[in-house]
Write a structure and sequence with these properties.
By secondary structure, the chain is α/β, with parallel strands linked by helices. Helices cover about 25% and strands about 25% of the residues. Strand 1 (about 20-25), helix 2 and strand 2 (about 45-50) form a beta-alpha-beta unit. It is globular and about 50 Å long.
Length: about 260
């Protein structure tokens, strides 16, 4: 089945207001920015996002966040996104913070058809006991707090019950993909992308390089096409547009340093 869609706008044309989205990426690495921009251009609003973070440096999900299009975020990192913090503390945005490994496993479990699992992460904290502020009232108080979760003991160790995540759609970015939706991710850009793709009922992938079926080594495929419904081939310019979140430059070597 040829899953290639001509444009990003066409690929997200049926995403309605209020949809839930699992979005790949970590910081600025592996973020499906072209698909996110298409959602912005369509004016989709009231979105519930499941992602490690909510974009940075006015790119990725930060585009939707700044426009007030996101109603709820399920994630594990806020980082230096000042607009995220402002909306959260002012009560404009509902936020469920999850330990990063738990978030990854909740996405994977949802995609694998596992309804729930037990993990030791969060036992003895508000993650398990409840009370984490999901929404503030804008005046410093908590309008909505997380509920307590079931805790059970196995072999003398306590574990908290976490539920798998399924979303209406998933947006991911891959280095290579074929027309059947088989995807290959490049190094750190692999991050949350395969997990987000598994969790979406309809998964849309933007690929930097589109190849024909049979060109990908089956052993090199990170995500089989069964999890992907639509593929968008990026232009060379879109594929090359990769921003750097934290640029670190070493001090120039002096003659004394070079000579020891």
């Amino acid at each position: 089945m040829d899953k290639v869609v001509a444009t990003a706008l066409e690929a997200v044309a049926d995403v309605p207001d209020g949809a839930s989205l699992a979005v790949g990426g970590f910081g600025l690495s592996g973020v499906p920015g072209v698909l996110v921009q298409a959602l912005y251009e369509r004016g989709v609003t009231g979105i519930s996002v499941v992602s490690n973070n909510c974009g940075a440096m006015e790119s990725g999900l930060a585009v939707l966040l700044a426009a007030g299009r996101i109603a709820r975020v399920t994630g594990s990192y806020i980082g230096a996104n000042k607009e995220f913090a402002r909306q959260y503390l002012s009560g404009e945005l509902e936020v469920e913070m999850i330990p990063q490994g738990t978030l990854a496993e909740r996405l994977r479990a949802g995609g694998a058809g596992i309804p729930a699992f037990y993990t030791p992460a969060g036992v003895g904290t508000q993650v398990a006991e409840g009370g984490l502020p999901w929404r503030y009232d804008g005046e410093g108080g908590v309008a909505l707090a997380s509920p307590p979760k079931e805790v059970r003991e196995f072999d003398g160790t306590e574990y908290v019950l976490e539920h798998g995540i399924r979303t209406d759609y998933a947006l991911v970015r891959a280095a290579k993909g074929d027309r059947h939706g088989n995807l290959v991710f490049n190094r750190s850009a692999r991050n949350f992308n395969p997990l987000a793709a598994m969790a979406g009922r309809i998964t849309i992938a933007e690929v930097e390089e589109l190849v024909e079926p049979g060109e990908l080594d089956p052993d090199a495929v990170h995500l089989p096409g069964i999890f992907v419904q639509r593929v968008v081939a990026l232009t060379p310019e879109q594929a090359a547009d990769k921003r750097i979140e934290q640029r670190t430059v070493s001090a120039p070597a002096t003659k004394e340093r070079v000579n020891g």
